Description:
Number of domains: 1
Number of helices: 9
Distance between the termini: 10 Å
Amino acid sequence: MEAGPSQTMRTRSHKMPMGARRSAGVPVEGRASEAAPLLRVVRDDFVVRKGESPADLAEREQGVTLDRVVNVTLATIAMILLAPLFIVVAIAIKLTSRGPIFYMQPRVGVDRRTSGTAPGYDRRGRDLGGTIFSIYKFRTMFLDAETKTGAVWATKGDPRITPIGRFLRKCRIDELPQLINVIRGEMNIVGPRPERPGIFARLREDIAEYPLRQRAKPGITGWAQINQSYDSCLDDVRAKVRYDLEYLERQSIAEDLRIMFKTVPVMLFRKGGW
Length: 274
């Protein structure tokens, strides 16, 4: 998503229903539960689950290194295999519109304030919701697309999107350069989608559970992304937050591989993109 919520979204905002703040069991697959379980504290890149014993936590901590190895290995292999596609897309972008091939934008990453484990992290500094990093995407909009509109969500038939960009967004190919972010350690292949700092600041005011998403590294794909299309209003964001919290409750390498597998038909059959 190269743009953020509009004034319409802000005027529609309202607080999360109290029912959505109570704990619940694992939901039916494919549906966001009405009350995703709340999560407690972050330890590095994953949450401590309610009722988890120290032994269980220690076992999961050992899996953090393995998780990193798996993500870097898969991202590196994908970059090599997709190199021909990257070249074709790059040529198509340059031939069809003026501007750079890649699009970079600051996004909010994992929140390490509660763990204090990030080297050089100033806990007394301004709370932006997480570590800020630059996300990589293939450019899908015309140059200076937001000069007149400002940060607004992309819509169906959006005139700011280039002809090749429309295809790239529909197939989610524009997200593939984020494999670079995975190799750099800023993202995982699977996780909640990262948002812009300014938009994040507004959304966490409107949705009480929104900051909980930052208790894991953001991802290129995720449980929310394969179950719902691009955001068009605040209610869409609320639904995705519930999906994200469900994912954090089940987070594991096996779960990540399952979501990666389910992402393939989303890309091939152009589900939910525009």
